[in-house]
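Try this one yourself first.
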């Protein structure tokens, strides 16, 4: 049989102390009669100690990991007067998505006046918060989005297509057609100008009139 020394001595020691406190509270409850109201308070205290002991014990096998939580989120949790250094809060943070944590923070901020115990509300409500995709809701458009999604043709391929479909001849015909059209427009303009100019004979007749 192999023997080894645990590397989680502080956690095990803390678990033992919590169990001893719960045991002592149970012994006091058995030996000393108390009122019904006080009895209820002691029972709740024992339950809290046992729950905390169980959480502490679990950290020896699966320690909480808060690497996925930014420091500003932890500061927001502190601003809610919830200590993220407590083991139950750490385990809750470690086991849930960042979007859920952000969601519960916003919810507590919006309902702060209606929540009596923020820590209990945090732990009970966090698993119910839906997971959402983080990041901007509106997609970010960059210059790359406007580039064609196909590779440009090589120079050889372009020349091959030009020869196949007689592109150069079509371009030449279009240019000739355009130039001939401009020539016809100029001829029409000259014709209109010549028709609108008064002749010299008409000018002489106008000069001979007595009025």
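Now uncover the answer:
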């Amino acid at each position: 049989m192999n023997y080894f020394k645990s590397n989680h001595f502080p956690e095990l020691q803390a678990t033992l102390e919590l169990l001893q406190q719960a045991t002592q509270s149970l012994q006091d409850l058995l030996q000393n009669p108390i009122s019904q109201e006080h009895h209820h308070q002691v029972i709740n205290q024992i339950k809290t100690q046992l729950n905390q002991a169980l959480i502490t014990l679990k950290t020896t096998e699966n320690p909480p990991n808060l690497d996925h939580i930014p420091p500003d989120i932890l500061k927001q949790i502190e601003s809610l007067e919830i200590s993220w250094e407590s083991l139950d809060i750490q385990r809750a943070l470690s086991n849930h998505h960042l979007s859920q944590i952000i969601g519960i923070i916003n919810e507590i901020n919006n309902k702060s006046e209606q929540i009596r115990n923020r820590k209990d509300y945090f732990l009970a409500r966090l698993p119910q918060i839906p997971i959402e995709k983080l990041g901007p809701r509106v997609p970010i458009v960059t210059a790359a989005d406007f580039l064609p999604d196909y590779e440009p043709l090589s120079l050889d391929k372009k020349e091959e297509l030009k020869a196949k479909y007689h592109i150069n001849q079509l371009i030449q015909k279009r240019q000739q057609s355009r130039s001939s059209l401009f020539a016809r427009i100029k001829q029409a303009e000259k014709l209109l100008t010549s028709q609108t100019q008064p002749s010299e004979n008409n000018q002489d007749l106008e000069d001979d009139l007595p009025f």
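Discussion: Residues 167-196 form the longest helix (30 residues). The two ends are 143 Å apart (CA to CA).
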